[in-house]
Amino acid sequence: MSQRSTPADVSFNLTVGIIAGIAILILVAPVLIVIATSFTTTQALRFPPPGLSLRWYGDLFDPVRSAPIHNAALNSVWVAGWATLIGSVLSVLAALAITRVSRPSARALEASFLSPLVLPTLSYGLAALMFFSVLGIRPSLNLLIAGHLVVIAPFVFRTTLASLTQLDPALLEASANLGASRFYSFRRITLPLIAPGVAAGSFLAFIASMDNVPVSLFLSTARTSMLPIRMWGMMESTLDVRIAAIAGVLIVAILILMVVMDRFTGLTRRMSA
Predict the structure, then answer these.
(1) Cα angle, residue 23 at apex, residues 157 and 230 outer, rounded to 5°
(2) Taking the CB of residue 163, how many other CB atoms lie within 10 A of it?
(3) Label partner for 259 (CA 20 to 30 A): which of 62, 100, 139, 271?
């Protein structure tokens, strides 16, 4: 026999539903607005658009008119790619090392590796600029890679460590008892089992690097301009509608990648782990 809902239960469910609906609206509405605006026929960022056109997407992909945007996008992909690759390798090694030390030490090391997640990125960007200036290192793409590396590595470290903690120690013990070396056990047992976690963290790290503004703001120059900085400059100076087109391309690309990553790595489950 099913239990009847009380007025208090109905009121609670209604309140939760309204709050959830408002939250979804706040998340989805800006995305829909910027995508709709990117198809406008006018010269300004205006919603709702008076008409629909692909004009601004055509201008965005024009290799002549949008050359600065393309260069900034290539810089962002280059920096994000190398920072993610290096950060993934270092994070996997760090996670493996932490799982082999005593628990009190592991907690301290884990907190230190995750500290960039809570460190204000504006403060870190300024500190990195001052530090590298003292060393006499001029701004470059390599410097941006180093700066982004500190900010994004914790994403890979977090998901890798979570995967390692779920690894059955009996598998490694059985491998060792059969005479396998540590490297062989890592290559044939550990790495295949933690690979989805590493891939999920690498995806999050890449997106965080592409989207980073504070570090890029302090460590980039006009020659090494990054896409978020270029978009911000366009927003301040001309309110160019191509900004909305860039946002539309990025949103669609990230949504597709998220679906693919969730299919193969369980991204949403690992993000909540």
Answers:
(1) 60
(2) 22
(3) 62
pLDDT band (50, 70, 90) for residue 269? low
Tokens coding 40? 């406008």
Torsion of CA 49, 51, 54, 58, to 10 degrees: -80
CA separation for the pair 226, 217 (Å, rounded): 8
Residue matched to tokens 């690097």: 209
Q: Which of 124, 153, 128 is closest to 140 using CA atoms?
A: 128
pTM passes above 0.90? no
d(CA 40, CA 221) in angstroms, rounded, equals 32
| Distance between CA atoms of residues 99 and 259, nearest Å | 31
Convert the pLDDT of each residue in 73-84 to its tens digit: 999 999 999 999
Pull the structure tokens for residue 42. 């006018």
Burial of 54 per CB tally in 10 Å (0-12, 13-18, 19+): exposed
**Locus of tokens 């198809």:** 39
SS3 of residue 8 by DSSP:
helix
Instruction: Classify domain 67-271 by CATH architecture.
Output: Orthogonal Bundle (1.10)
Residue 217, phi-psi category: left (phi > 0), alpha (psi -120 to 50), beta (remainder): alpha
Burial 216-230 (b: 16+ CB within 10 A, else e): bbbbbeeebbbbbbb
Collapsing DSSP to helix, strand or coil, 84 comes out as: helix
